[in-house]
Structures are given as structure tokens and as C-alpha cells.
Amino acid sequence: MTTIDLKGMGVALVTPFKADDSVDFEALQRLVEYQVRNGTDYLVILGTTAETPTLAEAEKAEIVRRIVVQVRRRIPLVLGVGGNCTREVVRKLNQDDFHGIDGILSVVPYYNKPSQEGIYRHYKAIAEAIPLPLILYNVPGRTGVNMTAETTLRIAREFEHVVAVKEASGNIVQMDGIIKNKPQHFEVISGDDSITFPLIALGAIGVISVIGNALPAEFSRMVHLALSGDYESARAIHSRFIDLFELLTVDGNPAGVKSLLHLMGYIENKLRLPLVPTRIPTSEKIREVLQRLSIK
To answer: Against a cut of 0.70, is the pTM above it?
Structure first.
């Protein structure tokens, strides 16, 4: 079975756009290299933060192709493949070329609000469709339904190549329950930058990060310090970023981190509708925090 090391900081990569709404592949190349050279342990392509629902299939394919060629196996690549039609997700997994991809991240079906049995059967079909390591993704604030600890553990125990869950429920008790009762091959990954430090202390193995797009070296250092048991040093870094965590979410994701990346000179501050950039007051507050942190 193919394996993947998910310990540390993964980054949910943004999709840069030009002013004319096209994908900015030059900016994407710069961002990917910035990640590889600054402590990112693996990249997550075409996740929520990538504005994937707004991308055409041809754009998605070209983004993946370019990143695979550029990274050259220097760090693992996880690809987001999800949806609320199980048959379509399975078709895509059976049909697409996953050369250069080390794992799949698949979100709980959204909008149609399946039962826990429906969620289980959805993931069962996905797990049976592809042998690559599979990461479950629970984000009820976006999907409209929470995957319970019981359902997560049921899936994990049945399929050895279901290797982790990206947990963004915000329910620490639920996450702690998964950590305490999980099979040995299965791990919990934080889906929320702001709770990564306490979740690692409970036994999570890291984070799939948004802030890491802009500050990979700093946030990766916090994650690895916490994983090594140096909680005092990790807490000091975590505390420095508390204001930024809030600012990056107040106007939605990825608006906040795109504003931050724009202020740092990496991308245009451009999103695709229905998403829009952060409000000017939010952007100014992000600028103030950056200046206070002395990060260029």
C-alpha cells in the first residue's frame, strides 16, 4: 500500500488570479516554490482554500499538472477530490490520472445533508475506488452536516488506506474522542490554524493550514516545536498569531489570506465570485499586524 507522511504542516494552497479573472500561473509557481523552500511538509491542491468550485475542469487539470512537474517529489502532494454526488466522485477517481499525487483529501458531502449512514457509504465507495491514502475532511460549517466521531472511527477501522481526518468541526471533545479511540494507522489533523497548538497537545499530528500560505516558516516552526513537546516555545509563536488568525477569517476564507499574500507582494488581491476581497478596514488591520510581527 502507498504511504504518506502527514506529520507537520500541510498547506491548503490558494489559487492566484489575475485582474482579468484568469489563473495566474506565474504567481502560483512562485507560491509553490516559496512553500517548498520554507518548511511546508506537504501541499494540498484544489481544496476549499483554492476556490475549487469556481475553477473549470481544464484549469484544475493544468494547476495539478504544473504543480506536479514543479515539485518533483520534493514534498508530498495531496489532491482534493470531493463532492455531493458519490457516483461522480467515484467516476473521477476511476478516470483521472493521479501520477505524482501522494494522497486524496475528500470532504464530507455538502448541501444535501446526508445521514451518518449516508456519509459512511459515501466514503466506503470512495475508499473502494482508489488505493491511494485517503484523508477524510469534516467541516460542518461549510457542508451543513457534522461527521460524528463514531462515523469517522467506523470508516477508519474498515479501511487501512483511510489514514487521517482533517477535523474542522471546532468541537474539541469530538476530536479528542477520535484521537483516544482511533486505530493505530489513523491520525487526526487540525483543519483550523487557531486550534492547532492545543490539538497537537491532545495528540493530533499537525495541521492543513491556511496561514501557512503566507507564513510557512513561522507556522511550521510552531507545529514542529509542539510535536517535539516544546510547548512553551510553540505557545509563544501561537500567541503571536492570535490576532492574525481572527483577521484571516472575519471576511471569509480565502479572502483573508489572499489579502495577506497581496500585502506581502506575492499575488493580486483577486478572488472569483461569489467570493470577494476583504473589506478595507480588515486589510488595514492585517497590514498593522504584519508590521508588528516584523514579517516582510
So the answer is: yes
